[in-house]
Structure formats: structure tokens, C-alpha cells
User: Which sequence fits this backbone?
């Protein structure tokens, strides 16, 4: 599954660059996907307790934590992916 996901992301990158469309949107999608992947480790490792980084001002116990940051990054990456699909269709 992971290998196929990497293949699709690379294939999409070549397709976007070759067609000369939405390269910046592809880069944003890739960036948010990588951020979500990096956040998934700490979120998974501390699933029983709420992972909060005290230096991040929007992190509030029982309100917003790394878990919500992860889902936000994933949602933004998905939105970029969707816009790329609309642009490519």
C-alpha cells in the first residue's frame, strides 16, 4: 500500500510537470502530506494521552493537540489532491 501510494504521488508529479499545470498545488499537496506523515508518529505513539506541544500557542488540553494538527494537515493535503484532480480532468 505504501509503495503504491509513493508510486501514485511520483506519477502525479511527473504528470503535473509534463502538462505544465498546477506545479505549486502539487508541491503544497506534497508538503502537507509529508507534514501529516511526520505528525502521525507522535500521535500514534501517545494515543492513550493527548499529545500537546506546550510551545505551540493553539494547543490546549482537551481542545486542540497534535492529533487535530495531523487531521488538519491531512485534510489540506486531500483538498490539494482534489483540486489537482479537477485541474487534470
Assistant:
Amino acid at each position: 500500500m505504501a509503495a503504491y501510494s509513493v508510486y501514485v504521488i511520483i506519477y502525479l508529479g511527473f504528470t503535473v510537470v509534463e502538462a505544465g499545470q498546477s506545479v505549486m498545488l502539487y508541491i503544497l499537496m506534497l508538503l502537507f502530506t509529508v507534514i501529516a506523515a511526520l505528525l502521525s508518529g507522535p500521535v500514534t505513539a501517545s494515543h492513550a494521552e493527548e499529545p500537546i506541544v506546550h510551545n505551540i500557542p493553539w494547543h490546549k488540553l482537551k481542545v486542540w493537540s497534535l492529533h487535530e494538527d495531523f487531521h488538519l494537515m491531512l485534510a489540506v493535503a486531500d483538498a490539494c489532491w482534489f483540486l489537482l484532480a479537477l485541474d487534470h480532468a
Notes: The chain has three helices and no strands. The chain has a mean pLDDT of 87. Helices lie at 2-19, 23-45, 66-88.
